[in-house]
């Protein structure tokens, strides 16, 4: 998969923004939101719903966009929950048959 490094870069930038919040950053705005962990969790819920609707409606371009939104906000929620993506990947690796 040639674009897998995008996920690695995204995780790195999310951690960078978490450690050094910036006023113009969307990532920082979510991670420092007054609702706390509820904000990224709310976004995961919204994006999951949008993804499901796009799939059910057979809208391929929208499914790709919503899939990207979902993955991105899932990463934000993991960071907000102080879970390392490495541990999630480790869990998947341990499930290999
Ligand atoms: N991958 C993304 C990405 N995907 C989506 N978004 C933003 O996510 C936001 C939410 O999308 P919605 O469709 O829910 O829009 P909305 O209803 O206006 O959002 P809300 O007001 O409900 O939060 C939009 O503003 C998008 O711009 C992203 N923002 C940032 N990134 C990555 O994160 C990096 C750091 O971004 P900054 O923190 O902004 O510098 C970027 O370089 C990108 O790689």
From TrEMBL:
Transmembrane segments: none annotated. It comes from the Archaea. GO terms for cellular component: cytoplasm. Keywords: Amino-acid biosynthesis, ATP-binding, Cytoplasm, Histidine biosynthesis, Hydrolase, Nucleotide-binding. One of its GO terms (biological process) is L-histidine biosynthetic process. Gene3D superfamilies: MazG-like. SUPFAM superfamilies: all-alpha NTP pyrophosphatases. Its EC number is 3.6.1.31. GO terms for molecular function: ATP binding; phosphoribosyl-ATP diphosphatase activity. It is found in: Cytoplasm. InterPro entries: HisE, PRib-ATP_PPHydrolase-like. It catalyses: 1-(5-phospho-beta-D-ribosyl)-ATP + H2O = 1-(5-phospho-beta-D-ribosyl)-5'-AMP + diphosphate + H(+). Pathway: Amino-acid biosynthesis; L-histidine biosynthesis; L-histidine from 5-phospho-alpha-D-ribose 1-diphosphate: step 2/9. HAMAP family: HisE. Belongs to the PRA-PH family. This is Phosphoribosyl-ATP pyrophosphatase.
């Amino acid at each position: 998969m040639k674009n897998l490094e995008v996920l690695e870069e995204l995780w790195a930038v999310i951690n960078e923004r978490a450690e050094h919040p910036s006023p113009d950053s969307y990532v920082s705005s979510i991670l420092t939101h007054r609702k706390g962990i509820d904000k990224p969790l709310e976004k995961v819920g919204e994006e999951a719903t949008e993804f499901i609707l796009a799939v059910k409606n057979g809208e391929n371009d929208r499914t790709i966009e919503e899939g990207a939104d979902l993955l991105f906000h899932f990463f934000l929620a993991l960071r907000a929950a102080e879970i390392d993506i490495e541990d999630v990947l480790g869990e998947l690796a341990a499930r290999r048959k």
